[in-house]
């Protein structure tokens, strides 16, 4: 395997968070550059992909956007298991959604993969007048839990690309560490489950 | 393609130039509204003959329906499979689902639920109202009649069965019904479906843990492997499972992000024959696109499974294909197998309610302290 100068990696990313916090809107903004005021609610889960370039590496995010309602909880593990990154979204105008976000963080800490890069996104940052969750509170919480934190707005596009870019930078594969196996730099984590070995390969 | 002609021939219910026959606002290019061709005079005549036959079959306001159904169930089945005429759809759906009887036997109950009760799900419902069929004129207007009736039906159900409450996905089912009947009728049809007035109850789709969704996905997974082994193998290689593409088929019975004209045809059969049509249609879709799907890698495959080509979703080719796929026997066996592994989905609670809601036969029904059937 040649030492790769231009690397391509695939990373599975999952969006979690209460219903109505703007998960689908964030994805739509990131993937298509759009915002739709009345986005259909997500039933089950939806899949998207988008690439981000970090230095000499192209990260292709394979994104699972999940349904947020509590009742759909039982479908979530198959999407976050094996995810390289998780974005946990709350709505800055809704305190309850922040509490729900914390629950997700705890669940990932217990059930998830310890290598998963976790980001906390306080969405709807354009609605400053209706803010219920102070940015400092979320920032402190994020620091304590080793999460990367940003306030975003899918509506105005503020911090949306930044969010995904920062996640890409933090992926273990992009950290300057020797590759232990000396082998292929490929992230097969988009395979939702157990099987680690994968046929796909980088360039 | 035939855009001009198409518009001339469209006598939609609402005079809105950018709306299709069913009231959905058209997307720019190929809107999947099933009206890609205009109807010929011949077809119109045939349609009228069909309506006349149907009217005779059901009688005034459905008065002859039960009689006809008892005498000629196979004729009914055949006709339903060809599609219920749109102008009679609402009434026929109520007749075949058993919701008519529930409604007649429970006067005033719906009103009671809507007006006097409060529901813990109210905020959840409100949040989703404008996100349910956002491209349909009836549901578009903020606080308009469409949104109000959708809210009322969902709220009433969440009170009627507080354990189910409101679950995302129910809105699409209720929304579809509301395009064909009144609020109260839609509510009772929802009850008939979820409580199992005619077929097995479907509330397990929405209960905590979504047990029935899990069971259906298990069954579907096996059916794919058995009916389409090559594709099943390919899915296994790409680590794709039905939960990634089919959960919303079951949760909303194809009413979510499927062409509406196809959804309606599926619902015609679904209400009469039960959930097995969902499996058949799912398998038929995979079968139709089989040769393309087996070649696709993970990502394209996921995309393909959520965006079937327009020709695959033509009801007049897809449904006949679906009817040829036999699943009943295996569905039964797979259900047993699933229950052995995971326990019964239809726990005592559901069974009890099923009995309760055989209202025409049961003496009375108590639910949340209120009499539902006398
Ligand atoms: N003002 C504002 N509204 C937003 C933003 N993101 C999403 N929304 C709105 O919030 C509602 C829910 O968004 P959606 O993406 O469907 O949420 P999801 O349930 O988490 O996927 C929609 O009506 C969006 O228009 C945002 O950044 N700012
Ligand atoms: Mg969503």
TrEMBL record, chain A:
Q: According to its record, how does it sit in the membrane?
A: Lipid-anchor
Q: What is its main location?
A: membrane
Q: Could you name the domain of life of the organism this protein comes from? A: Eukaryota
Checking SMART domains in the record gives: RAB, RAN, RAS, RHO
Question: Which Pfam families does this entry report, sorted A to Z?
Answer: Ras
> InterPro entries this protein is in?
P-loop_NTPase, Small_GTP-bd, Small_GTPase
Example of a GO cellular component annotation carried by this entry:
endomembrane system
Keywords in alphabetical order, please.
GTP-binding, Lipoprotein, Membrane, Nucleotide-binding, Prenylation, Protein transport, Transport
For this UniProt entry, the molecular function terms from Gene Ontology, in alphabetical order, are: GTP binding
CDD domains named among the record's database cross-references: Rab5_related
- Where located? Endomembrane system
GO biological-process terms attached to the record: protein transport; vacuolar transport
What is the recorded function of this protein according to its Swiss-Prot or TrEMBL entry?
Protein transport. Probably involved in vesicular traffic.
**Family assignment from sequence similarity:** Belongs to the small GTPase superfamily. Rab family.
Which NCBIfam families did the record assign? Answer: small_GTP
Name this polypeptide is given: Ras-related protein RABF2b
TrEMBL record, chain B:
Q: Which residues form the Rab-GAP TBC domain?
A: 83-274
Which UniProt keywords are present, listed alphabetically?
A: GTPase activation
Q: Which InterPro entries match?
A: Rab-GAP-TBC_dom, Rab-GAP_TBC_sf, Rab_GAP_TBC_domain
Gene Ontology MF: a single term: GTPase activator activity
Q: Does the keyword ATP-binding apply?
A: no
Q: Where is this region: Disordered?
A: 1-20
Stored Pfam families: RabGAP-TBC
Q: Which SUPFAM superfamilies match?
A: Ypt/Rab-GAP domain of gyp1p (SSF47923)
Q: Organism's domain of life? A: Eukaryota
Q: Which PANTHER family match?
A: GTPASE ACTIVATING PROTEIN AND CENTROSOME-ASSOCIATED, ISOFORM B, RAB GTPASE-ACTIVATING PROTEIN 1-LIKE
Q: Return the protein name.
A: Ypt/Rab-GAP domain of gyp1p superfamily protein
